[in-house]
Amino acid sequence: AGYCVHTIYLTAGDAGHDSFYWLGRERGAQEAYQSIIGKPTTWIERTIQLKGGQFVTQANPRGNNNIKLLFMHLPDGNLRSNGFAANNFASLAKLDNDQIKTISSVDRLSTYTREDIVTGLTELFAALRPTVIRTQSSTDTGVKIHDHSDHLAVGRLVRAAYIRYEASAFANKLMIPLEYYTGYSIAEAPSNVAGEELAAKERAFFAYAEHDPAACRPEQPCWQT
User: Fold this and answer.
1) 78 — alpha (psi -120 to 50), left (phi > 0) or beta?
2) Measured between alpha carbons, how far is 138 from 130 in angstroms, rounded to an integer?
3) For 219, phi and psi rounded to 5 degrees?
């Protein structure tokens, strides 16, 4: 529709693998957005530095600043927040619960405390000036299919940053919407997307999946999983 869409990825989604995997997932995210844009484009990447000294990668289509993908490259915390050996078993959930004091990005360029993440998100909100913030749910509603620990932790961290942003930017006099997305447990809900809307969603997902060997492909039985 031509609106600005700025997406912040807190974790690299590395699943304990090396940079070839998580960089592939970043490329897949770009391809998914390109599918939605509907025309070929070259993506421009640059590194930005937060006030705390940490580094974030920003990608946008050439000549189009309405779409920005920002990658903080924090490590995948695994399904149940126990992390992976490649990153000293660190996870956002452990950081949020004060089980660990710091967490380092998978590219080893940045280290964050919980306060650093909340402050960094608040800084990005101030720079991007969103009119609505959407994030992952901090509540696990699953009965048999539970959500990823990173999703739940991100919901809590974004909520903390949102509260701080509202106070600093608007003195709590203007409340912009904060909306939550259900994660993996949405698989327990009835289907409610069909027709061309579903086809467009599939095109975007499969454009991404070409760059993620862990994702299903169009010719595979995706609907069964």
Assistant:
1) left
2) 20
3) -80, -5
CB 210 within 8 A of CB 41: no
A 10 A CB-CB count for 146 gives: 15
User: How many C-beta atoms surround the C-beta of residue 69 within 10 A?
Assistant: 21
Residue recorded with tokens 């304990």: 16
Distance CA 114, CA 120 (A): 10
Entry field: residues in the chain: 225
Q: How confident is the model at residue 166 (pLDDT cuts 50, 70, 90)?
A: very high
For 104, phi and psi rounded to 5 degrees?
-110, 145
* Secondary element (H or E) of residue 90: none
Angle, helix 114-128 to helix 149-170, in steps of 10 degrees: 60
Secondary structure letter of residue 17 according to DSSP: -
Six-digit token string for 196: 């061309």
How many of the other CB atoms lie within 10 Å of CB of 177? 10
pLDDT, tens only, 91-135: 999 999 999 999 999 999 999 999 999 999 999 999 999 999 999
